[in-house]
Amino acid sequence: MAVFEGMTNWLIGDASMGWLMGDASMGWLMGGGALGWPELAQLFAHFFVLSLISVGGAINTASDMQRFVVQEHGWLSAAQFNTSVAIAQASPGPNVLFVAVLGFNLAGLAGLVAAMSGIMLPSTVLALKAGRLTEQYRESRAIGAFNAGLGPLSIGLLLSTGWVLLQPYLGHGSQRIGALALAGVAVLVMVRTKLSPIWLIGLGALVGALGGV
User: What is the pTM of this model?
Assistant: First the structure.
């Protein structure tokens, strides 16, 4: 135990490697956040569990990520969380990028690695295994029922994410109407048309720029 404590103090204390957690030339490793190694381990473990239920993509678990990061621990504000998601969703690439932005905002490069490895490792392994099983037993009634049940589950998770992202705006009278109207239009367009979501993202950016939300 003493040896472990000595190594820990060497890494994060005031010794020659103190820059790993400090404000010196390599302080960017931990970014602007205040998370230490215990908190990073918590972040990794929680995202690891969420990865196992991220049916339809990591964005569907954003509601619980918000609960964990904002409500339970207060590491980010609701506005910071929403901004992280919005920036990542508006950028090219898979929607899981918002996890990287969240992690970086929490603790720099170390937070990014903890969040992304937690959310990616279990789901990647499961996807590979499930793909092989589905191919092998594609005619199985159990496999068909399992796949059919994933649709409603994914929709429910996505709706809960949308509701959580709306919360910061519902408390302000001037923003409530615009936020609810924008959400309603987005749902209606996605259900009734085949329009690309990028147009809705652009519409949201325009409404925000004009002060509607």
Answer: 0.68
